[in-house]
Amino acid sequence: PAEPAHHHDKHLTITAESLKTGWVTDRQCHYQLDQVGAMEVTFAPGRVRALEIARAENIEKAWVEASSVQLKNVGPNAVLCIHSENRILEHDPSTGTYLLTSGPYMRRFLDGYFPIRVSLQLDYPARLLTLTEIDPPEIRSRVTRLPGQARLDAWFEGRLAMRLRFDLKKPE
């Protein structure tokens, strides 16, 4: 892109407690936000808690409203960092697997989508889980995997919803 696109930098952490509750720690920052009079970052109602603004720069006003963060008068080089817990990890007892759903990620204005960069860092307990599947298939080649970690850096235009499946490791 001619000018830097919105960059959504997200760090998700799955803990042993997450396997029981489904709640995952989310630390995210948004860089190069569009200069607009009003903007919002939304979360699925009932699936977010402890939502707080950790940092807001070059934004006249930022506040939490229900399951969203509202922004007023976003200036040049604006930065917004948000901390929350998201219920995005589901357990399937019939297969013993866990499914983490993240997104959809998008940069939407009126009826169109614009380029966005998403960087995702996922940490999970390697002694308990093995990452076995990543969807959609188009992003698999962009994911770096290490025991207990997955990293993604993707540029796209439209909507991106990611699903990562984990197997529970058998006790040794």
Task: Please tell me about this protein's structure.
By secondary structure, the protein is mostly beta strands. The strands form three sheets. Strands 1, 2, 3, 4, 5, 10, 12 and 13 form an eight-stranded mixed β-sheet that branches. The chain has one helix spanning 16-21; strands at 6-13, 23-31, 38-42, 48-65, 68-87, 89-92, 97-106, 108-109, 112-113, 115-123, 129-135, 143-146, 149-157, 159-168. It is 3% helix and 68% strand.
State the main characteristics.
single chain; 172 residues; mainly beta; Immunoglobulin-like; 2 domains; 4-stranded antiparallel sheet; 1 helix; 3% helix; globular
Q: What's the total number of strands?
A: 14
Tell me the helix content. under 10%
Shape: globular
| CATH class bucket of the largest domain | Mainly Beta
Distance between the termini: 50 Å
The CATH architecture of the largest domain comes to: Sandwich
Number of domains: 2
- Tell me the CATH superfamily of the largest domain: Mu homology domain, subdomain B
Low-confidence stretches: none
Order of helices and strands: EHEEEEEEEEEEEEE
The description of the largest β-sheet is: 8 strands, mixed
Whole-number mean pLDDT: 90
